[in-house]
Amino acid sequence: MRGRQLGEADRIFTLFTGERGKLDAVAKGVRRAKSHLAGRMEFGNECEFGMHRGRSLDVIVSAHILHAPWSKLVEPERFAVVSLVAELIDAFCEPDLAMPDVYELLTGMIAAVERSPSPRELLPRFSLRLLAVLGLAPPPDACVRCGRQLGSNAGWLDAQAGGLIDESCRERWRDLPEFDARDRENFGALCAPKGAAAPALRATPRVARAVEDLLAHHLGRRPKAGAHLSEFVPG
User: Which CATH code for domain 71-139+156-232?
Assistant: First the structure.
């Protein structure tokens, strides 16, 4: 969940749910010291909510914590990583559209960030899994322009095209990152379906930058939280 202030004591929260997808709801009086909701509405918490319909926003009347990662997320790198994850989910997902696969991906990512000693390394795999759930994932072994299999041939990452391209489709005047055999293997593993790759699989530097470029292309901008992450974890 993410929140913003409303009036003197209320707060509007952006929630992502398994049944209704993304939605905004107001918690009345949550900023008062005696509010029964205050300690339960922390960033990243997974809760079971009691709600009723309001005129413009649903109103949260109760919250039961299912999982509370806040004690780990207050660490700067973890907080920055989960902030970036939340920004991507918020940007890519439409309101009131049920997306259970995205909900599962989100809760799994937060749990992984809690456990990982290097949470930033989880982002390339998460980003490619998110693109896959949204139907935007690049094929790891074929040219996105002509569809030919890359085989053992070189590949270049063309973010504007949405994935890898081969020699015949490459515009030589453009300076595109070339994937060597190690990068190709790494990219393919990161793109693998759920359960087919280790959740903590580390991206090569070239692949990590390429995934960031792909996200920026589909999002139409660089994620704002990415700048904050770089402040805590250079590179």
Answer: 1.20.1440
